[in-house]
């Protein structure tokens, strides 16, 4: 009875209020409703992001419960640490000093241009090579603000702290291409030479014609087409995309070689686990600041367009830039590389027939 009485009073008060309200003033509830809906949608979206979409924090090396630090590391300008590994002759007496920049889902141990050369040949070439874990990989601290420029500055700082001298060579493989292009843009005066091996192409570089980028993009496996698109248009979604199980995410993130070209399958079958014996050391800090960050940077908006770069060795006749690519690469289709080579006459382009993304494992 009390409830009915309260309700009747409430109805009476509401009717009285309505009768005294100007017909031109809308009810307060109608004004608040859109705001309430916006707030509710925002709260739901925030909770969804926190619980499902937001990537977990990286498992930092050396932190309590985190992976141990076993590699030598340098401390960078912003306090991050960069882990590295040295190969070949001692750097103090080497004539050729090379910095190797690994690809996606790899680490400092995967310096194939050192590990597959005999010590005798390294000695004959008087070559020193240092490989390093790119940010978020292996034992290098993540860099959530990573860009091609920051990667180039990491390379320069590594060279300076290891006392490699005024000039050095860089080799960038696959996703290591973003750092190598960055070096050609931001620190060309430090380079004795540069080599890009099957470098990943950003299909949104503004100087890449739509028909060329579309053709290259369409040659990728469907799952990778979608993953690349998400990385570009909705980078906040990429962690969920690559970890959910409703449909396939990136083939690289999921370590699925089903879409490899036949030459790459043959190499994987032949070499087995010896191709990547340190696989367990690649992602100890998690997927997001390694694989996902590669995609966000590689397919995001760049500060510069590599196709518009001038010759970095215009005044240095001894320096040169080389780009090697297999014509049967399904991970990074060759079509855009041919266009880039046409537009950059100073770039020495080498196309390897009948080869895929792992062609550099052949012959050794």
From TrEMBL:
UniProt superkingdom: Eukaryota
Keywords (A to Z) from UniProt: Membrane, Transmembrane, Transmembrane helix
Domain AB hydrolase-1: 98-361
Keyword Transmembrane helix: yes
Transmembrane spans: 31-49
InterPro entries named in the record: AB_hydrolase_1, AB_hydrolase_fold
Protein name: AB hydrolase-1 domain-containing protein
SUPFAM superfamilies, sorted: alpha/beta-Hydrolases
């Amino acid at each position: 009875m009390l409830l009915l009485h309260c309700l009747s009073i409430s109805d009476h008060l509401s009717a009285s209020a309505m009768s005294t309200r100007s017909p031109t003033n809308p009810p307060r509830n109608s004004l608040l409703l859109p705001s309430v809906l916006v707030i509710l949608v925002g709260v739901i979206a925030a909770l969804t992001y926190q619980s499902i979409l937001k990537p977990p924090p990286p498992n930092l090396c050396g932190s309590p419960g985190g992976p141990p630090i076993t590699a030598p590391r340098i401390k960078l300008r912003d306090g991050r640490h960069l882990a590295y590994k040295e190969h070949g002759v001692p750097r103090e007496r080497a004539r050729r000093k090379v910095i190797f920049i690994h690809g996606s889902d790899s680490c400092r141990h995967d310096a194939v241009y050192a590990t597959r050369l005999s010590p005798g040949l390294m000695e004959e070439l008087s070559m020193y090579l240092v490989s390093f874990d790119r940010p978020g990989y292996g034992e290098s601290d993540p860099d959530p603000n990573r860009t091609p420029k920051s990667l180039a500055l990491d390379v320069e700082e590594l060279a300076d702290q290891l006392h490699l001298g005024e000039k050095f060579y860089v080799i960038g493989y696959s996703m290591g291409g973003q750092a190598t292009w960055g070096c050609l843009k931001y620190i060309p005066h430090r380079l004795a030479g540069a080599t890009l091996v099957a470098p990943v192409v950003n299909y949104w570089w503004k100087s890449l014609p739509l028909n060329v980028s579309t053709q290259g993009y369409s040659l990728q496996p469907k799952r990778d087409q979608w993953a690349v698109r998400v990385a570009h248009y909705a980078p906040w979604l990429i962690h969920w995309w690559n970890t959910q199980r409703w449909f396939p995410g990136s083939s690289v993130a999921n370590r699925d070689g089903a879409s490899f070209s036949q030459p790459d399958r043959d190499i994987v079958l032949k070499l087995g686990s010896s191709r990547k014996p340190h696989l367990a050391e690649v992602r100890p800090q998690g997927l997001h600041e390694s694989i996902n960050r590669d995609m966000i940077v590689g397919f995001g908006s760049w500060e510069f367009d590599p196709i518009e770069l001038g010759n970095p060795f215009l005044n240095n006749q001894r320096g040169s830039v080389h780009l090697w690519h297999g014509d049967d690469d399904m991970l990074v289709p060759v079509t855009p590389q041919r266009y880039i080579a046409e537009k950059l006459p100073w770039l020495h382009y080498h196309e390897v027939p009948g080869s895929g993304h792992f062609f550099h494992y052949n012959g050794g």
